[in-house]
Amino acid sequence: MAYKIAVLPGDGTGPEVLREGLKVLDAAAKVYHFQYETVTYDLGGERFLRTGEVLPPSVLGELRTVDAIYLGAIGHPKVAPGILERGLLLTLRFELEQYINLRPVKLFPGVECPIKGKEPKDIDFVVVRENNEGLYTGAGGVLRKGTAEEVATQISVNTRAGVERCLRYAFEYTRRRGRKRVVRVESADLVSVADGPAGQPVEFAHRDRGKMLGTPVKKDAGGVDFEVRGFLTMCGKTNVLTFEQDLWWRAFHEVGAADFPEIFRDYAHVDATCMWFVKNPEFFDVIVTNNMFGDIITDLGAMIQGGLGVAAGGNINPDGVSMFEPMGGSAPKYTGKNAINPIAAIGAAGMMLDTLGECDAAAAVEAAIAATTPKMKSMAAGRMGYSTTEVGDLVAAAIR
Ligand code: IPM
Ligand code: MN
After folding, report:
1. Which residues sit opposite 106 in a β-bridge?
2. Which protein residues touch ligand 1 with a CB less than 6 Å away?
3. For the segment 68-81, what is each residue's pLDDT rounded down to a tens digit?
4. 329 CA: nearest ligand 1 atom
């Protein structure tokens, strides 16, 4: 069966980077023997300026029937902010129920990191951002506009069902990543530890997080070191957003204790998360967070992995149509210059393969990127030492 992929090149440098992503997809299809066909849609700023259309209902209907969507970039200097973002990007995320925004933060070899002394082994985590709720729903409004008594509200919408499905995805993802690590639980936080054969996981109860499973590897008066199978950080703001974060906190620990006890449930406030991204990014494995916090921390994440030229993301509906995109914008300044970095778009194509179930091909794309980045002078547009098409050629040639 051939996968049907909708290609939305979009604005600015979007078409240039997608061309390279499709080149790599082609190379992967030859080696890994899968078939796909593409259908291209000219959505974006140009079409809007020409016809007034952002996302015609018939196109949305067609997009509901494809296996995946591959998006370049949207944003046009002649179109007011918000029209394309809300009308196209957010509408697709909401209409197709892409409730996860998956953003790996990975420093590839040879990529310059702005944090002194950090290497690829130190920066390798994934952010699972809720993608359908929170401050992005558009709930709220304005009263008495333009007067001195003007009131503006923007409501963060958090449903138990919406939060829970996001958390479940994050736990599953952490389980699939399968990264073991040793976590210390201080005596003051440790309510109980069950007995069990040495070297086997036992149940322990954490003071405010409930039950988890871990293999005790060291005990002393101060606490116990447990080996756990996955480390999931909920990034929130429980100290201020007491309504929504209370829902998140309870759902996090209830779902985790019931169905994913072997994964350690960590918590960090969003401001502290930003601090740790810079101070010790090696701390993180998988992070789960709401829509707005996820938007903000993943831009910081993109910077520590070498910039927007490398950062890829997926808008995922695990039971439906997912959409993959480089995180960078349309970069009007570089349009048509064959100078923009296509690595992020190629990485997004790799994530698309993973979601389609072509996991070996996806791993091959990632390996081919890792084989290419050391050859590049920089990840910045115009300074790569190669053109956009040459970088695409290098990655395609490295697929095996
Ligand atoms: C992103 C972008 C979008 C967002 C904008 C363009 C609406 O910043 O994908 O992170 O805020 O989600
Ligand atoms: Mn963003």
Report:
1. 124
2. 85, 89-90, 295
3. 999 999 999 999 99
4. 6
